[in-house]
Protein backbone atom coordinates (compact mmCIF):
# COMPACT_ATOMS: atom_id res chain seq x y z
CA UNK A 1 0.00 0.00 0.00
CA UNK A 2 1.08 3.58 -0.53
CA UNK A 3 2.08 5.82 2.33
CA UNK A 4 4.75 5.73 4.99
CA UNK A 5 6.15 2.41 6.06
CA UNK A 6 4.64 1.18 9.35
CA UNK A 7 6.78 1.33 12.46
CA UNK A 8 8.04 -2.14 13.41
CA UNK A 9 7.18 -3.75 16.71
CA UNK A 10 9.66 -2.86 19.44
CA UNK A 11 10.88 -5.97 21.22
CA UNK A 12 12.46 -6.33 24.64
CA UNK A 13 13.90 -9.44 26.20
CA UNK A 14 12.77 -10.50 29.67
CA UNK A 15 13.79 -13.39 31.86
CA UNK A 16 10.56 -15.04 32.86
CA UNK A 17 9.61 -17.91 35.08
CA UNK A 18 7.65 -20.75 33.50
CA UNK A 19 3.86 -20.61 33.43
CA UNK A 20 3.67 -23.70 35.61
CA UNK A 21 5.97 -22.18 38.22
CA UNK A 22 4.07 -18.91 38.19
CA UNK A 23 0.77 -20.73 38.64
CA UNK A 24 2.12 -22.80 41.53
CA UNK A 25 3.46 -19.72 43.25
CA UNK A 26 0.14 -17.94 42.92
CA UNK A 27 -1.73 -20.85 44.42
CA UNK A 28 0.72 -21.32 47.29
CA UNK A 29 1.33 -17.77 48.40
CA UNK A 30 -0.47 -14.49 49.15
CA UNK A 31 -1.53 -11.95 46.57
CA UNK A 32 1.32 -10.38 44.65
CA UNK A 33 2.31 -6.95 45.87
CA UNK A 34 3.82 -5.78 42.57
CA UNK A 35 2.98 -6.36 38.93
CA UNK A 36 6.25 -8.05 38.01
CA UNK A 37 6.78 -10.38 35.07
CA UNK A 38 7.08 -13.74 36.84
CA UNK A 39 4.46 -13.27 39.54
CA UNK A 40 0.74 -13.90 38.98
CA UNK A 41 -1.47 -11.46 40.84
CA UNK A 42 -2.78 -7.92 40.88
CA UNK A 43 -2.06 -4.54 42.40
CA UNK A 44 -3.86 -1.22 42.68
CA UNK A 45 -1.99 1.80 41.29
CA UNK A 46 -4.67 4.19 42.49
CA UNK A 47 -6.41 4.61 39.14
CA UNK A 48 -6.30 1.07 37.79
CA UNK A 49 -6.22 -2.54 38.80
CA UNK A 50 -2.97 -3.92 37.38
CA UNK A 51 -3.18 -7.63 36.55
CA UNK A 52 -0.06 -9.69 35.83
CA UNK A 53 -0.76 -13.08 34.28
CA UNK A 54 2.58 -14.39 35.48
CA UNK A 55 3.69 -15.04 31.92
CA UNK A 56 4.23 -12.23 29.40
CA UNK A 57 1.09 -10.14 29.76
CA UNK A 58 0.27 -7.28 32.12
CA UNK A 59 -2.95 -5.33 31.65
CA UNK A 60 -4.77 -2.56 33.49
CA UNK A 61 -8.47 -1.92 34.07
CA UNK A 62 -9.69 1.51 35.10
CA UNK A 63 -11.25 1.61 38.56
CA UNK A 64 -13.44 4.49 37.38
CA UNK A 65 -15.13 3.21 34.22
CA UNK A 66 -13.94 -0.34 33.54
CA UNK A 67 -11.94 0.57 30.44
CA UNK A 68 -8.91 -1.51 29.49
CA UNK A 69 -6.24 1.19 29.81
CA UNK A 70 -3.07 -0.82 29.18
CA UNK A 71 -2.14 -4.06 27.41
CA UNK A 72 1.58 -4.79 27.71
CA UNK A 73 2.97 -7.94 26.10
CA UNK A 74 6.68 -8.67 26.54
CA UNK A 75 7.28 -5.07 27.47
CA UNK A 76 5.49 -3.46 24.53
CA UNK A 77 2.33 -1.44 25.05
CA UNK A 78 -0.35 -2.38 22.50
CA UNK A 79 -3.39 -0.63 23.93
CA UNK A 80 -4.58 2.71 22.66
CA UNK A 81 -5.04 4.86 19.61
CA UNK A 82 -6.36 8.35 19.28
CA UNK A 83 -6.12 8.77 23.04
CA UNK A 84 -8.85 6.18 23.54
CA UNK A 85 -9.01 3.07 25.70
CA UNK A 86 -10.41 -0.35 24.87
CA UNK A 87 -13.94 -0.77 26.18
CA UNK A 88 -17.57 -1.74 25.77
CA UNK A 89 -19.19 0.36 23.04
CA UNK A 90 -17.39 3.74 23.23
CA UNK A 91 -16.94 3.60 26.99
CA UNK A 92 -19.47 3.13 29.75
CA UNK A 93 -18.79 6.10 31.97
CA UNK A 94 -18.56 6.06 35.74
CA UNK A 95 -19.01 2.46 36.91
CA UNK A 96 -18.59 0.28 39.96
CA UNK A 97 -15.41 -1.74 39.43
CA UNK A 98 -14.27 -4.52 41.77
CA UNK A 99 -11.60 -7.20 41.68
CA UNK A 100 -11.17 -10.62 43.28
CA UNK A 101 -8.75 -13.50 43.05
CA UNK A 102 -9.82 -17.13 43.31
CA UNK A 103 -6.83 -19.43 43.14
CA UNK A 104 -5.35 -19.17 39.66
CA UNK A 105 -8.05 -16.81 38.36
CA UNK A 106 -8.48 -13.05 38.76
CA UNK A 107 -11.86 -11.51 37.93
CA UNK A 108 -12.58 -7.80 37.45
CA UNK A 109 -16.29 -6.97 37.59
CA UNK A 110 -17.71 -3.77 36.06
CA UNK A 111 -21.27 -2.65 36.81
CA UNK A 112 -22.89 0.20 34.90
CA UNK A 113 -26.63 0.40 35.54
CA UNK A 114 -28.14 -2.88 34.36
CA UNK A 115 -25.03 -3.78 32.35
CA UNK A 116 -22.36 -6.07 33.77
CA UNK A 117 -18.96 -6.57 32.17
CA UNK A 118 -16.10 -8.83 33.23
CA UNK A 119 -12.37 -9.35 32.64
CA UNK A 120 -10.67 -12.54 33.77
CA UNK A 121 -7.00 -13.58 33.82
CA UNK A 122 -5.60 -17.06 34.31
CA UNK A 123 -2.20 -17.78 35.81
CA UNK A 124 0.44 -18.39 33.14
CA UNK A 125 -1.78 -17.42 30.19
CA UNK A 126 -1.38 -14.51 27.80
CA UNK A 127 -5.14 -14.16 27.45
CA UNK A 128 -7.79 -11.77 28.72
CA UNK A 129 -11.23 -13.41 28.98
CA UNK A 130 -14.24 -11.08 28.66
CA UNK A 131 -17.98 -11.37 29.22
CA UNK A 132 -20.66 -8.72 28.70
CA UNK A 133 -24.19 -9.01 30.08
CA UNK A 134 -26.60 -6.55 28.54
CA UNK A 135 -29.95 -6.90 30.26
CA UNK A 136 -32.01 -4.33 28.34
CA UNK A 137 -31.83 -1.32 26.03
CA UNK A 138 -30.95 1.16 28.77
CA UNK A 139 -27.29 0.87 27.76
CA UNK A 140 -26.18 1.00 24.14
CA UNK A 141 -23.70 -1.87 24.36
CA UNK A 142 -23.25 -3.34 20.93
CA UNK A 143 -19.55 -4.17 20.83
CA UNK A 144 -16.27 -4.48 22.62
CA UNK A 145 -13.45 -2.76 20.77
CA UNK A 146 -9.74 -3.41 21.38
CA UNK A 147 -7.95 -0.23 20.34
CA UNK A 148 -4.41 -0.91 19.14
CA UNK A 149 -1.62 1.65 18.81
CA UNK A 150 -0.62 2.78 15.35
CA UNK A 151 2.39 1.27 13.60
CA UNK A 152 2.57 -1.99 15.51
CA UNK A 153 1.12 -4.13 12.74
CA UNK A 154 1.26 -3.85 8.98
CA UNK A 155 -1.82 -2.33 7.47
CA UNK A 156 -2.08 -5.00 4.77
CA UNK A 157 -5.63 -6.28 5.07
CA UNK A 158 -7.94 -4.83 2.38
CA UNK A 159 -11.00 -5.40 4.52
CA UNK A 160 -9.48 -3.64 7.54
CA UNK A 161 -8.23 -0.41 5.99
CA UNK A 162 -10.66 2.42 6.61
CA UNK A 163 -8.73 5.62 6.08
CA UNK A 164 -8.58 7.01 2.56
CA UNK A 165 -8.57 10.49 1.04
CA UNK A 166 -12.18 10.63 -0.15
CA UNK A 167 -15.36 9.90 1.80
CA UNK A 168 -17.96 8.53 -0.60
CA UNK A 169 -20.78 7.42 1.71
CA UNK A 170 -21.87 8.55 5.16
CA UNK A 171 -18.70 8.96 7.23
CA UNK A 172 -17.51 5.38 7.01
CA UNK A 173 -16.93 4.41 3.38
CA UNK A 174 -13.82 5.74 1.68
CA UNK A 175 -12.15 5.75 -1.71
CA UNK A 176 -8.41 5.60 -2.24
CA UNK A 177 -6.63 7.51 -4.98
CA UNK A 178 -6.47 4.34 -7.10
CA UNK A 179 -10.26 3.97 -7.02
CA UNK A 180 -10.39 1.09 -4.55
CA UNK A 181 -12.80 1.46 -1.65
CA UNK A 182 -12.41 0.66 2.03
CA UNK A 183 -14.66 0.55 5.07
CA UNK A 184 -14.60 -1.02 8.50
CA UNK A 185 -17.90 -2.66 7.51
CA UNK A 186 -16.26 -4.83 4.85
CA UNK A 187 -15.57 -7.88 6.98
CA UNK A 188 -15.49 -10.34 4.04
CA UNK A 189 -16.54 -13.10 6.44
CA UNK A 190 -19.72 -14.51 7.86
CA UNK A 191 -19.85 -15.40 11.55
CA UNK A 192 -19.66 -19.10 10.69
CA UNK A 193 -16.43 -18.51 8.75
CA UNK A 194 -14.14 -17.36 11.55
CA UNK A 195 -13.12 -18.18 15.10
CA UNK A 196 -10.80 -15.22 15.57
CA UNK A 197 -9.59 -12.01 13.94
CA UNK A 198 -6.45 -10.01 14.46
CA UNK A 199 -2.97 -9.22 13.25
CA UNK A 200 0.50 -10.72 13.36
CA UNK A 201 4.00 -9.44 12.66
CA UNK A 202 5.31 -12.97 12.47
CA UNK A 203 6.77 -12.67 15.95
CA UNK A 204 3.79 -11.16 17.80
CA UNK A 205 0.12 -11.85 17.24
CA UNK A 206 -2.79 -9.91 18.72
CA UNK A 207 -6.18 -11.54 18.32
CA UNK A 208 -9.78 -11.42 19.44
CA UNK A 209 -11.33 -14.89 19.62
CA UNK A 210 -15.06 -14.56 19.22
CA UNK A 211 -17.65 -15.95 21.60
CA UNK A 212 -20.24 -18.51 20.52
CA UNK A 213 -22.58 -15.57 19.73
CA UNK A 214 -25.48 -17.27 21.49
CA UNK A 215 -26.90 -13.91 22.50
CA UNK A 216 -26.00 -12.11 19.28
CA UNK A 217 -28.48 -11.80 16.40
CA UNK A 218 -28.48 -12.69 12.74
CA UNK A 219 -27.52 -16.35 12.66
CA UNK A 220 -24.51 -18.14 11.19
CA UNK A 221 -24.35 -16.19 7.92
CA UNK A 222 -24.46 -12.72 9.38
CA UNK A 223 -21.71 -10.24 8.47
CA UNK A 224 -20.52 -7.41 10.67
CA UNK A 225 -17.41 -5.34 11.13
CA UNK A 226 -14.50 -7.31 12.60
CA UNK A 227 -11.53 -4.97 12.54
CA UNK A 228 -10.29 -1.74 11.08
CA UNK A 229 -7.07 0.18 10.60
CA UNK A 230 -6.73 3.90 10.23
CA UNK A 231 -4.01 6.52 10.38
CA UNK A 232 -3.96 6.59 14.19
CA UNK A 233 -4.24 2.87 14.91
CA UNK A 234 -6.44 -0.17 14.60
CA UNK A 235 -9.40 -1.82 16.24
CA UNK A 236 -10.48 -5.40 16.81
CA UNK A 237 -14.14 -6.06 17.56
CA UNK A 238 -16.40 -8.52 19.25
CA UNK A 239 -19.83 -7.50 18.01
CA UNK A 240 -22.57 -8.03 20.55
CA UNK A 241 -25.34 -6.55 18.40
CA UNK A 242 -24.77 -4.83 15.06
CA UNK A 243 -27.46 -2.59 13.66
CA UNK A 244 -26.42 -2.73 9.99
CA UNK A 245 -28.73 -4.99 7.94
CA UNK A 246 -29.90 -6.73 11.10
CA UNK A 247 -32.40 -9.52 10.46
CA UNK A 248 -33.43 -10.30 14.04
CA UNK A 249 -34.43 -8.49 17.18
CA UNK A 250 -31.73 -7.88 19.74
CA UNK A 251 -31.15 -10.65 22.28
CA UNK A 252 -30.24 -9.90 25.87
CA UNK A 253 -28.14 -11.69 28.43
CA UNK A 254 -24.56 -12.78 28.94
CA UNK A 255 -22.28 -12.97 25.93
CA UNK A 256 -18.90 -14.61 26.23
CA UNK A 257 -16.33 -15.43 26.92
CA UNK A 258 -14.55 -13.77 24.06
CA UNK A 259 -10.79 -13.58 24.41
CA UNK A 260 -8.01 -11.09 23.77
CA UNK A 261 -5.10 -13.41 23.00
CA UNK A 262 -1.43 -12.50 22.60
CA UNK A 263 0.90 -14.98 20.88
CA UNK A 264 4.41 -15.24 19.52
CA UNK A 265 3.09 -14.64 16.04
CA UNK A 266 0.94 -17.71 15.47
CA UNK A 267 -2.80 -18.09 15.61
CA UNK A 268 -4.43 -18.27 19.03
CA UNK A 269 -4.72 -21.72 20.54
CA UNK A 270 -7.63 -23.76 19.19
CA UNK A 271 -8.55 -24.49 22.81
CA UNK A 272 -9.91 -20.92 22.93
CA UNK A 273 -12.22 -21.29 19.94
CA UNK A 274 -16.01 -21.21 20.35
CA UNK A 275 -17.27 -24.76 20.69
CA UNK A 276 -13.90 -25.87 22.04
CA UNK A 277 -13.23 -23.53 24.96
CA UNK A 278 -13.90 -25.00 28.39
CA UNK A 279 -14.68 -22.51 31.15
CA UNK A 280 -15.30 -24.83 34.06
CA UNK A 281 -12.82 -22.66 35.96
CA UNK A 282 -15.38 -19.82 35.76
CA UNK A 283 -18.32 -21.82 37.11
CA UNK A 284 -17.99 -20.49 40.65
CA UNK A 285 -16.90 -16.91 39.91
CA UNK A 286 -20.38 -15.42 40.25
CA UNK A 287 -20.62 -13.97 36.75
CA UNK A 288 -24.13 -12.62 36.20
CA UNK A 289 -26.07 -14.76 33.73
CA UNK A 290 -23.40 -17.44 33.53
CA UNK A 291 -24.65 -20.97 32.80
CA UNK A 292 -22.20 -23.82 33.32
CA UNK A 293 -21.90 -26.76 30.93
CA UNK A 294 -24.00 -28.87 33.31
CA UNK A 295 -26.90 -26.47 32.78
CA UNK A 296 -26.85 -26.87 29.01
CA UNK A 297 -27.99 -29.52 26.57
CA UNK A 298 -27.19 -30.83 23.12
CA UNK A 299 -29.08 -31.51 19.89
CA UNK A 300 -27.85 -34.30 17.60
CA UNK A 301 -29.34 -35.57 14.36
CA UNK A 302 -28.49 -38.88 12.73
CA UNK A 303 -28.67 -37.42 9.24
CA UNK A 304 -30.38 -35.33 6.57
CA UNK A 305 -31.73 -36.89 3.39
CA UNK A 306 -32.80 -35.07 0.25
CA UNK A 307 -29.66 -32.93 0.23
CA UNK A 308 -27.91 -31.59 -2.85
CA UNK A 309 -24.38 -32.83 -2.16
CA UNK A 310 -22.89 -29.97 -4.17
CA UNK A 311 -23.69 -27.67 -1.24
CA UNK A 312 -22.73 -27.37 2.39
CA UNK A 313 -25.65 -27.72 4.80
CA UNK A 314 -25.93 -25.95 8.14
CA UNK A 315 -28.36 -26.64 10.98
CA UNK A 316 -29.41 -23.65 13.07
CA UNK A 317 -31.29 -23.32 16.35
CA UNK A 318 -32.95 -20.06 17.32
CA UNK A 319 -35.50 -18.59 19.68
CA UNK A 320 -35.95 -15.12 21.13
CA UNK A 321 -33.28 -15.77 23.76
CA UNK A 322 -30.45 -17.59 21.99
CA UNK A 323 -29.04 -18.90 18.72
CA UNK A 324 -26.69 -21.76 17.78
CA UNK A 325 -25.59 -23.63 14.68
CA UNK A 326 -23.55 -26.56 13.45
CA UNK A 327 -22.38 -27.98 10.13
CA UNK A 328 -24.01 -31.08 8.71
CA UNK A 329 -21.54 -33.83 7.77
CA UNK A 330 -21.10 -34.01 4.01
CA UNK A 331 -21.39 -37.79 3.83
CA UNK A 332 -24.73 -38.24 5.56
CA UNK A 333 -25.90 -34.96 7.10
CA UNK A 334 -25.11 -35.89 10.70
CA UNK A 335 -24.93 -32.85 12.99
CA UNK A 336 -24.34 -32.12 16.66
CA UNK A 337 -24.88 -28.80 18.43
CA UNK A 338 -23.66 -28.68 22.04
CA UNK A 339 -23.75 -26.08 24.81
CA UNK A 340 -27.37 -25.10 24.17
CA UNK A 341 -29.39 -23.31 26.84
CA UNK A 342 -32.58 -25.18 27.81
CA UNK A 343 -35.68 -24.20 25.88
CA UNK A 344 -37.71 -24.74 22.73
CA UNK A 345 -36.06 -23.71 19.47
CA UNK A 346 -36.88 -23.50 15.79
CA UNK A 347 -34.49 -25.84 14.01
CA UNK A 348 -33.68 -24.74 10.46
CA UNK A 349 -31.76 -26.65 7.81
CA UNK A 350 -29.93 -24.41 5.35
CA UNK A 351 -28.73 -25.40 1.90
CA UNK A 352 -25.95 -22.88 1.52
CA UNK A 353 -27.79 -19.95 3.10
CA UNK A 354 -31.27 -20.90 1.96
CA UNK A 355 -33.68 -22.36 4.52
CA UNK A 356 -35.11 -25.61 3.13
CA UNK A 357 -36.58 -27.21 6.27
CA UNK A 358 -37.81 -26.14 9.71
CA UNK A 359 -39.10 -27.95 12.75
CA UNK A 360 -39.29 -27.45 16.51
CA UNK A 361 -36.95 -29.01 19.06
CA UNK A 362 -36.80 -28.84 22.85
CA UNK A 363 -33.49 -28.86 24.71
CA UNK A 364 -33.10 -30.01 28.32
CA UNK A 365 -30.19 -29.30 30.63
CA UNK A 366 -27.74 -32.17 30.93
CA UNK A 367 -29.35 -34.19 28.14
CA UNK A 368 -29.04 -34.82 24.41
CA UNK A 369 -32.09 -34.41 22.21
CA UNK A 370 -31.61 -36.94 19.41
CA UNK A 371 -33.50 -36.48 16.16
CA UNK A 372 -34.16 -39.08 13.50
CA UNK A 373 -33.13 -38.47 9.91
CA UNK A 374 -34.61 -35.26 8.53
CA UNK A 375 -36.07 -35.77 5.06
CA UNK A 376 -36.12 -32.53 3.09
CA UNK A 377 -39.18 -32.56 0.82
CA UNK A 378 -38.24 -32.10 -2.82
CA UNK A 379 -40.60 -29.13 -3.08
CA UNK A 380 -38.70 -27.29 -0.34
CA UNK A 381 -35.68 -26.79 -2.59
CA UNK A 382 -36.59 -24.49 -5.50
CA UNK A 383 -33.74 -26.01 -7.54
CA UNK A 384 -35.76 -29.19 -7.91
CA UNK A 385 -38.44 -27.50 -9.97
CA UNK A 386 -38.13 -28.18 -13.69
CA UNK A 387 -37.14 -24.99 -15.50
CA UNK A 388 -36.98 -23.88 -19.13
CA UNK A 389 -34.01 -21.76 -18.10
CA UNK A 390 -32.36 -20.74 -14.85
CA UNK A 391 -29.84 -18.04 -13.97
CA UNK A 392 -27.85 -18.57 -10.78
CA UNK A 393 -28.29 -21.24 -8.13
CA UNK A 394 -30.94 -21.39 -5.44
CA UNK A 395 -28.65 -21.27 -2.41
CA UNK A 396 -29.68 -18.07 -0.63
CA UNK A 397 -26.69 -16.08 -1.89
CA UNK A 398 -25.78 -14.06 -5.03
CA UNK A 399 -22.74 -16.29 -5.52
CA UNK A 400 -21.74 -16.63 -9.16
CA UNK A 401 -23.38 -13.39 -10.28
CA UNK A 402 -21.30 -10.50 -11.57
CA UNK A 403 -19.42 -8.67 -8.78
CA UNK A 404 -20.89 -10.89 -6.05
CA UNK A 405 -17.59 -11.87 -4.41
CA UNK A 406 -16.21 -8.32 -4.52
CA UNK A 407 -19.26 -6.88 -2.79
CA UNK A 408 -18.39 -8.48 0.57
CA UNK A 409 -15.29 -6.27 0.84
CA UNK A 410 -15.85 -3.28 -1.45
CA UNK A 411 -18.33 -0.57 -2.33
CA UNK A 412 -20.32 -1.02 -5.57
CA UNK A 413 -18.49 2.02 -7.02
CA UNK A 414 -15.11 0.32 -6.56
CA UNK A 415 -12.84 0.49 -9.60
CA UNK A 416 -12.51 -3.31 -9.52
CA UNK A 417 -16.23 -3.82 -10.13
CA UNK A 418 -17.41 -4.76 -13.59
CA UNK A 419 -20.08 -2.59 -15.16
CA UNK A 420 -23.37 -3.03 -13.33
CA UNK A 421 -25.27 -2.78 -16.60
CA UNK A 422 -25.41 -5.43 -19.31
CA UNK A 423 -28.01 -7.75 -20.71
CA UNK A 424 -28.13 -11.55 -20.76
CA UNK A 425 -28.86 -14.04 -23.51
CA UNK A 426 -30.05 -17.48 -22.42
CA UNK A 427 -27.89 -20.10 -24.05
CA UNK A 428 -24.80 -17.91 -24.21
CA UNK A 429 -23.05 -19.91 -21.49
CA UNK A 430 -22.38 -16.78 -19.43
CA UNK A 431 -25.87 -16.11 -18.15
CA UNK A 432 -24.98 -16.06 -14.46
CA UNK A 433 -21.55 -14.40 -14.61
CA UNK A 434 -22.95 -11.66 -16.84
CA UNK A 435 -25.98 -10.95 -14.66
CA UNK A 436 -25.33 -8.33 -11.93
CA UNK A 437 -25.50 -9.54 -8.34
CA UNK A 438 -27.35 -6.36 -7.32
CA UNK A 439 -29.95 -4.24 -9.10
CA UNK A 440 -30.71 -0.64 -8.11
CA UNK A 441 -33.52 1.62 -9.23
CA UNK A 442 -31.09 4.43 -10.07
CA UNK A 443 -28.15 2.40 -11.42
CA UNK A 444 -29.11 -0.57 -13.56
CA UNK A 445 -32.86 -1.01 -13.41
CA UNK A 446 -34.29 -2.29 -16.67
CA UNK A 447 -31.96 -5.25 -17.15
CA UNK A 448 -32.92 -7.41 -20.13
CA UNK A 449 -32.92 -11.20 -20.48
CA UNK A 450 -33.32 -12.60 -24.00
CA UNK A 451 -34.61 -16.14 -24.51
CA UNK A 452 -36.36 -18.30 -27.10
CA UNK A 453 -39.24 -20.71 -26.54
CA UNK A 454 -40.41 -23.71 -28.50
CA UNK A 455 -43.88 -23.66 -29.99
CA UNK A 456 -45.15 -25.89 -27.21
CA UNK A 457 -43.63 -23.69 -24.52
CA UNK A 458 -45.00 -20.52 -26.12
CA UNK A 459 -48.48 -22.01 -26.11
CA UNK A 460 -48.64 -22.26 -22.31
CA UNK A 461 -48.60 -20.00 -19.29
CA UNK A 462 -45.46 -20.19 -17.13
CA UNK A 463 -44.31 -19.09 -13.70
CA UNK A 464 -41.34 -16.75 -13.49
CA UNK A 465 -39.46 -16.71 -10.16
CA UNK A 466 -36.95 -14.17 -8.87
CA UNK A 467 -35.26 -14.93 -5.55
CA UNK A 468 -33.64 -12.15 -3.55
CA UNK A 469 -31.47 -12.23 -0.44
CA UNK A 470 -32.10 -8.71 0.85
CA UNK A 471 -33.47 -5.38 -0.29
CA UNK A 472 -32.66 -1.78 0.48
CA UNK A 473 -35.38 0.87 0.76
CA UNK A 474 -38.13 -1.60 -0.20
CA UNK A 475 -36.62 -2.25 -3.62
CA UNK A 476 -38.37 -5.16 -5.38
CA UNK A 477 -38.58 -6.40 -8.96
CA UNK A 478 -41.37 -5.62 -11.37
CA UNK A 479 -41.14 -7.51 -14.65
CA UNK A 480 -42.17 -6.91 -18.25
CA UNK A 481 -42.31 -9.80 -20.72
CA UNK A 482 -42.49 -8.45 -24.25
CA UNK A 483 -45.58 -6.23 -23.92
CA UNK A 484 -47.02 -7.88 -20.79
CA UNK A 485 -46.36 -6.00 -17.51
CA UNK A 486 -46.65 -7.57 -14.08
CA UNK A 487 -48.25 -5.92 -11.11
CA UNK A 488 -45.95 -4.37 -8.52
CA UNK A 489 -45.32 -6.92 -5.76
CA UNK A 490 -45.59 -6.01 -2.11
CA UNK A 491 -42.24 -5.48 -0.38
CA UNK A 492 -41.18 -8.32 1.91
CA UNK A 493 -39.88 -7.65 5.40
CA UNK A 494 -36.23 -6.61 5.17
CA UNK A 495 -33.76 -4.70 7.35
CA UNK A 496 -34.19 -0.94 7.18
CA UNK A 497 -30.51 0.04 7.24
CA UNK A 498 -27.85 0.04 4.55
CA UNK A 499 -26.86 -3.36 3.22
CA UNK A 500 -25.64 -3.54 -0.37
CA UNK A 501 -23.10 -0.75 0.17
CA UNK A 502 -21.67 -2.00 3.48
CA UNK A 503 -20.58 -5.46 2.40
CA UNK A 504 -23.72 -7.45 3.16
CA UNK A 505 -26.28 -9.21 1.01
CA UNK A 506 -27.67 -11.04 4.05
CA UNK A 507 -31.23 -10.01 4.70
CA UNK A 508 -34.35 -12.16 4.51
CA UNK A 509 -34.50 -14.50 1.52
CA UNK A 510 -37.68 -14.03 -0.46
CA UNK A 511 -39.02 -15.43 -3.73
CA UNK A 512 -41.19 -13.31 -6.02
CA UNK A 513 -43.41 -15.30 -8.39
CA UNK A 514 -45.08 -13.97 -11.54
CA UNK A 515 -47.76 -15.85 -13.45
CA UNK A 516 -47.02 -15.02 -17.07
CA UNK A 517 -49.94 -15.81 -19.41
CA UNK A 518 -49.44 -17.62 -22.71
CA UNK A 519 -50.51 -14.46 -24.51
CA UNK A 520 -47.30 -12.75 -23.36
CA UNK A 521 -44.98 -14.98 -25.45
CA UNK A 522 -43.92 -14.41 -29.02
CA UNK A 523 -45.39 -17.00 -31.38
CA UNK A 524 -42.43 -16.78 -33.75
CA UNK A 525 -39.99 -19.29 -32.23
CA UNK A 526 -37.07 -17.80 -34.12
CA UNK A 527 -37.38 -14.56 -32.22
CA UNK A 528 -36.14 -13.75 -28.73
CA UNK A 529 -38.61 -13.05 -25.99
CA UNK A 530 -37.47 -10.16 -23.83
CA UNK A 531 -37.75 -10.09 -20.05
CA UNK A 532 -37.15 -6.69 -18.48
CA UNK A 533 -36.50 -6.42 -14.75
CA UNK A 534 -37.08 -3.08 -13.07
CA UNK A 535 -36.59 -2.20 -9.42
CA UNK A 536 -39.53 -0.27 -8.03
CA UNK A 537 -39.90 1.59 -4.75
CA UNK A 538 -41.00 4.91 -3.42
CA UNK A 539 -38.05 5.04 -1.04
CA UNK A 540 -34.29 5.46 -1.25
CA UNK A 541 -32.20 8.31 -2.57
CA UNK A 542 -29.89 8.20 -5.58
CA UNK A 543 -27.16 6.07 -7.16
CA UNK A 544 -26.10 3.14 -4.95
CA UNK A 545 -28.35 4.37 -2.13
CA UNK A 546 -31.40 4.19 -4.33
CA UNK A 547 -33.74 1.26 -3.74
CA UNK A 548 -32.01 -1.98 -4.62
CA UNK A 549 -32.00 -5.71 -4.18
CA UNK A 550 -29.58 -8.66 -4.21
CA UNK A 551 -30.33 -11.62 -6.48
CA UNK A 552 -30.29 -15.28 -5.42
CA UNK A 553 -31.58 -16.88 -8.64
CA UNK A 554 -34.22 -16.43 -11.33
CA UNK A 555 -35.89 -18.97 -13.56
CA UNK A 556 -38.78 -19.66 -15.88
CA UNK A 557 -40.53 -22.85 -14.87
CA UNK A 558 -41.50 -25.49 -17.39
UniProtKB/TrEMBL annotation:
Coiled coil: none annotated. One of its GO terms (biological process) is pectin catabolic process. It holds the Pfam family RhgB_N. GO terms for molecular function: carbohydrate binding; rhamnogalacturonan endolyase activity. Residues 1-28 form the signal peptide. PROSITE patterns: TAT. Its EC number is 4.2.2.23. Keywords: Cell wall biogenesis/degradation, Disulfide bond, Lyase, Secreted, Signal. Residues 296-371, 388-556 form the Rhamnogalacturonan lyase domain. Its main location: secreted. It catalyses: Endotype eliminative cleavage of L-alpha-rhamnopyranosyl-(1->4)-alpha-D-galactopyranosyluronic acid bonds of rhamnogalacturonan I domains in ramified hairy regions of pectin leaving L-rhamnopyranose at the reducing end and 4-deoxy-4,5-unsaturated D-galactopyranosyluronic acid at the non-reducing end. It is found in: Secreted. GO terms for cellular component: extracellular region. Residues 40-289 form the Rhamnogalacturonase B N-terminal domain. It is an enzyme of class 4 (lyase). InterPro entries: Carb-bd-like_fold, Gal_mutarotase_sf_dom, Galactose-bd-like_sf, GH-type_carb-bd, RG-lyase_II, RG-lyase_III, Rhamnogalacturonase_B, RhgB_N. Belongs to the polysaccharide lyase 4 family. This is rhamnogalacturonan endolyase. It comes from Streptomyces sp. R35.
Amino acid sequence: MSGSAPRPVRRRTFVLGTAAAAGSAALAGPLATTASAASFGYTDDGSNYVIDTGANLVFKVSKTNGDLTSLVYKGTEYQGYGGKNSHVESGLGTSTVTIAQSGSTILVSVAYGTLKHYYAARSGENNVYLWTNKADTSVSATRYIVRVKAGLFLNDEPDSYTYAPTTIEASDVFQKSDGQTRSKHYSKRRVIDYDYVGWTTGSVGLWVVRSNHEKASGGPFYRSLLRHQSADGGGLYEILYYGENQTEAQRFGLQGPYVIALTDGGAPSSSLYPGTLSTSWADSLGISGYVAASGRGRVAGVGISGRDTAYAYTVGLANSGAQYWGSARASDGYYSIAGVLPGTYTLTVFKGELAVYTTSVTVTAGATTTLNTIAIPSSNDPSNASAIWRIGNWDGTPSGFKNADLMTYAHPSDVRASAWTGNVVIGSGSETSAFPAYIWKDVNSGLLVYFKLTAAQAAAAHTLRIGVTTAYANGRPQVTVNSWVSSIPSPPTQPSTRSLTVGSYRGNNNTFTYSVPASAWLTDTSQYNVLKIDVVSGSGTTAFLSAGTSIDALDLLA
